Amino acid sequence: MCSSRKILWSLLLLSVVEVGLGVASIVLGAVGISWVRGHHKPQQGDASPVWSGLCFLVCGMCGVLCARKRTGLIMILFSACCICGLIGGILNFQFVRALNKRPDSMHSIHLAAMTLACLGISSCTLSTWLTCRLASSEQQRMFLEREHSLHHSHEMSEKEILDNSSNGIPQISYNGHTTASP
């Protein structure tokens, strides 16, 4: 089983990759939109690389936040962003694939957009899996901390009972009854 530290570094690295994929997809989408506006009227799907890039960018930034602060709420937020990134990447791929069938399409830009979408989908899937592993690891760590804390508090309560029973006065026991000696 991977240690929590390895999971965190993997998640951080993958999140940085997602940020890079998001920025690249946004730039590629902007280039595609500017080229389309110069040649014909923009159609549905021309801006899909920009939208999926935004999803990947937000997902990557939440992943960096999740790697730094491992709270349950941030892990849930990151998982939700990964799912949105998956949906955005899949829709982007479908829209660009449909655009690629047009006779005046830009095959190289569409191929690059589909490649970025596939890489983004893969990184979102891996990030979701790593987040589940991280949540499991954190849950186990918190359980062990709680168990250690309960064991320690049980020892302290036994010590307090012993301390309170003597009150600093030596106790003498006769036939099970405790009396204080003068």
Radius of gyration: 29 Å
Largest sheet, spatial ordering of strands: 1-2
Shape: rod-shaped
Q: Would you tell me the structural class of the helices and strands?
A: mainly alpha
Helix segment count? 4
Main β sheet profile: 2 strands, antiparallel
Q: How many strand segments?
A: 2
Strand content: under 5%
Give the mean pLDDT: 81
Q: H/E series, N to C?
A: HHHHEE
Task: Please give the share of residues in helix.
Answer: over 70%
Low-confidence stretches: none
Distance between the termini: 62 Å
What features would you describe in this structure?
β1 and β2 form a beta hairpin. The longest helix is centred in the last third of the chain and has 60 residues, at about 105-165. The protein starts with a helix and ends with a strand. It has helices at about 5-40, 50-70, 70-100, 105-165, and strands at about 170-175, 175-180. The protein has about 180 residues and is mainly α. The chain is about 80% helix and about 5% strand. Strands 1-2 form a two-stranded antiparallel ribbon. It has 4 helices and 2 strands.
Keywords:
mainly alpha, two-stranded antiparallel sheet, 4 helices, about 5% strand
List the helices and strands and how they pair.
Layout: H1 4-39, H2 48-68, H3 72-99, H4 107-166, E1 171-174, E2 177-180
Antiparallel strand pairs: 1-2
